[in-house]
Every structure is written in structure tokens, then in C-alpha cells.
From TrEMBL:
It comes from the Bacteria. Signal peptide: none annotated. NADP(+) binds at G159, R160, S161, T225. Catalyzes the oxidation of 5,10-methylenetetrahydrofolate to 5,10-methenyltetrahydrofolate and then the hydrolysis of 5,10-methenyltetrahydrofolate to 10-formyltetrahydrofolate. This is Bifunctional protein FolD. Residues 133-272 form the Tetrahydrofolate dehydrogenase/cyclohydrolase NAD(P)-binding domain. Residues 4-114 form the Tetrahydrofolate dehydrogenase/cyclohydrolase catalytic domain. It comes from Nonomuraea helvata. Its EC number is 1.5.1.5, 3.5.4.9. Pathway: One-carbon metabolism; tetrahydrofolate interconversion. The keyword Oxidoreductase applies. Belongs to the tetrahydrofolate dehydrogenase/cyclohydrolase family. The keyword Oxidoreductase applies. InterPro entries: Aminoacid_DH-like_N_sf, NAD(P)-bd_dom_sf, THF_DH/CycHdrlase, THF_DH/CycHdrlase_cat_dom, THF_DH/CycHdrlase_NAD-bd_dom.
């Protein structure tokens, strides 16, 4: 079994991004936050730290966990109109009553470095240039880095969120995989996932995917980052059990996560250099 780690790939992407960022005016990313969710805030801090390390300016605009949707909308619109800001990201989760899908429409698609605007998802589905959500792009980047063949192969994505599952299904289709998407209403999940040559879990349920869900030799990508009681992190895949069956598997932590952060910064540098 090959362990597909993401740290080295993330470092390589950051190095490239540092060079891209240095080639023009300093890129600036604005991260809009309206949550007290610890995992989400951890991600924001790691974005800020990684941005500093590659020469990208990062403003965290914290509106507080009680922010009204109108205020979030207004903030996104102002940042989208600000010529000094090249990338705008709206962090999830959001306060009750606020819809990420609705609010993200206020992000200028040219600055939509986490592919959250419905226009970005539509363009992705249509095969037009757009920023993909960094997490979905990270799954593709890992598969490419480890030279996993996609054309003609059976790929199964578990999860259909706008941030991960849906855009990822389009990216895999675009690479000529035969794609099946599963979700909470899927009947007999294991019977579907065990047909996958490439299996991606993006659910948010600790160790949902066990040995019985995986075909021998399959490539398994674990997007899940579920906090544990002792302050650690566990994926959607039961690593120990699936490692006995799979041909290749990403670890959590140290798999998709670091690549996600690196790609968000790459997108920001590219947004700053758009003609
Ligand atoms: N490493 C990284 O960079 C990132 C990691 N994540 C992590 O990925 C995971 C998924 O995130 P996200 O997509 O935002 O989550 P969402 O909660 O938005 O979506 C979860 C999806 O999983 C489906 N689902 C839930 N339970 C089951 C089940 N028992 N069987 C099959 N499908 C199920 C849901 O189905 P339905 O649509 O029917 O409700 C839904 O489509 C989380 O652990 C999150 O922390 C997220 C973003 C980035
Ligand atoms: N609009 C939006 N887009 C997102 O992409 C998004 C979001 N909202 N809200 C929160 C989730 C979560 N997320 C993570 C990204 C990287 C790691 C990551 O790098 N984790 C490290 C380890 C962290 C640790 O050890 O605690 C790793 O996997 O190695 C984790 C989680 C992005 N998210």
C-alpha cells in the first residue's frame, strides 16, 4: 500500500507560488470569517501563516459569529470592488440563516480563488476557465502528482457539497473518468464504493469508509478532517483497516489538507496576475 502524502507536493506548490507572487505586484487575499468554529479558525490561521511564507498579503476580516447576512454580503461586495484585493474567500460555516451559496455570488469571479461563486461552478461544469474550490483542486493535484490514471477509470465520490463533492465530480469527468457521486440517501453505500478504482471520501463522518467499502488495490483519497476529543484529527476513512485493502491511501493529517492551503495561495497569485 502506498501512502500518498501531501506535504512535499504542498511545499513544491508553495515554492512555485512564491516565484509567481514575486513576479508582479504583491498579491493580496482577503478571508472573510463569520464563525467561532475551531477547525475553521485553525484553517484561517494556517492560510495566513502560509500566505506570509510565500509573500502574499492576507487580511482576515472577522465579522463575528453573529454577523447578519447583509453585512457579509456588503463586505464581499466591497472587497470585490477593491483594486488592491486580488483574492476573496468566504470561510464556512456561516451563522444560522446565512447561505454560503447565496452570499458567494457577491464575490467577483475573477477574485473567487476558492471557487465559491455559482458562476465559477457553472464555468467549471462547462469546461471554461474558472477557479475550482481549492479542496477539489487539491484532490486532482494529488492524483496527478502520484500519476494515478483517470481516463476511462471508475471514480466514486462520496459527498455532494458545493465545496468538494460537486466540483470534484466535474473535474474528474473532465479528465474522462466514469464518475458516480454518493450522498446520505445513497442505498447500500459499500456496494457502490467497492466498484471504485479511485474512491474519494468527502463526508465529514469519522472513519465512515471501512475495509468493506473498498475494492482491492483501489486508490483512496480522504478529504475528511474530523476533530477528535483529544484535539487530534481523523479522516472519513478508517486508515488502519483500509490500508490492508487499498493500493494507495492519503493520510489525515498530512494528505489533502496541506495541498488545499497551497492551492488557495496559488489561485491568489494567479488572480493577481490576470490580464
Ligand atoms: N482537507 C480539506 O482541505 C477540507 C476538508 N473538508 C472536510 O471534508 C469533509 C466534508 O466537507 P463538506 O463537503 O464541506 O461537508 P458537507 O457537510 O457540506 O457535505 C457532506 C456530504 O456528505 C454526505 N453524507 C453525509 N453523511 C453521509 C453518509 N452517511 N453516507 C454518505 N454520504 C453522506 C452529505 O449528503 P447530503 O448531501 O445528502 O446531506 C453531503 O453531501 C469534512 O470532514 C470537512 O471538514 C472540507 C473542506 C476542505
Ligand atoms: N469556504 C471554505 N473552503 C474550505 O476549503 C474550508 C472551509 N470553507 N471551511 C473549513 C474547511 C476545513 N478546511 C481545511 C483545510 C486544510 C486543513 C489542513 O491542512 N489540515 C492539516 C492538519 C491540521 C491539524 O493537525 O489540526 C492536515 O490535514 O494535515 C484542514 C481543514 C478547509 N475548509
Amino acid at each position: 500500500m502506498r501512502t500518498l502524502t501531501g506535504k512535499e507536493l504542498a511545499a513544491a506548490i508553495r515554492a512555485q507560488t512564491e516565484a509567481e507572487a514575486a513576479a508582479g505586484p504583491q498579491p493580496r487575499l482577503a478571508v472573510v470569517v463569520a464563525t467561532a468554529d475551531e477547525a475553521s479558525l485553525w484553517y484561517v490561521r494556517s492560510i495566513a501563516k502560509a500566505a506570509a511564507s510565500v509573500g502574499i498579503a492576507c487580511d482576515v476580516v472577522d465579522l463575528g459569529a453573529e454577523a447578519a447576512p447583509e453585512r457579509i454580503d456588503d463586505t464581499l461586495a466591497k472587497l470585490s470592488a477593491d483594486a488592491n484585493v486580488h483574492g476573496v474567500m468566504l470561510q464556512t460555516p456561516l451563522p444560522a440563516g446565512a447561505s454560503a451559496q447565496r452570499l458567494a455570488a457577491a464575490i467577483d469571479p475573477r477574485k473567487d480563488v476558492d471557487g465559491a461563486n455559482p458562476l465559477s461552478l457553472g464555468r467549471l461544469a462547462a469546461g471554461l476557465p474558472a477557479f475550482a474550490p481549492a479542496t477539489a483542486a487539491a484532490v486532482l493535484a494529488l492524483l496527478d502528482h502520484y500519476e494515478v490514471e483517470l481516463q476511462g477509470r471508475r471514480a466514486v465520490v462520496v459527498g455532494r457539497s458545493t465545496v468538494v463533492g460537486k466540483p470534484l465530480a466535474h473535474l474528474l469527468l473532465d479528465r474522462h473518468a466514469t464518475v458516480t457521486v454518493c450522498h446520505s440517501r445513497t442505498r447500500d453505500l459499500a456496494s457502490v464504493t467497492s466498484t471504485a478504482e479511485v474512491l474519494v471520501a468527502a463526508v465529514g463522518r469519522p472513519a465512515l469508509i471501512g475495509a468493506g467499502h473498498v475494492a482491492p488495490g483501489a486508490v483512496v483519497i480522504d478529504v475528511g478532517t474530523n476533530p477528535t476529543d483529544d484535539g487530534g484529527l481523523i479522516g472519513d476513512v478508517d486508515f488502519g483497516a483500509v490500508a490492508e485493502v487499498a493500493g494507495a491511501l492519503t493520510p489525515v493529517p498530512g494528505g489533502v489538507g496541506p495541498v488545499t492551503t497551497a492551492l488557495l495561495l496559488r489561485h491568489t497569485a494567479r488572480a493577481a496576475n490576470l490580464p
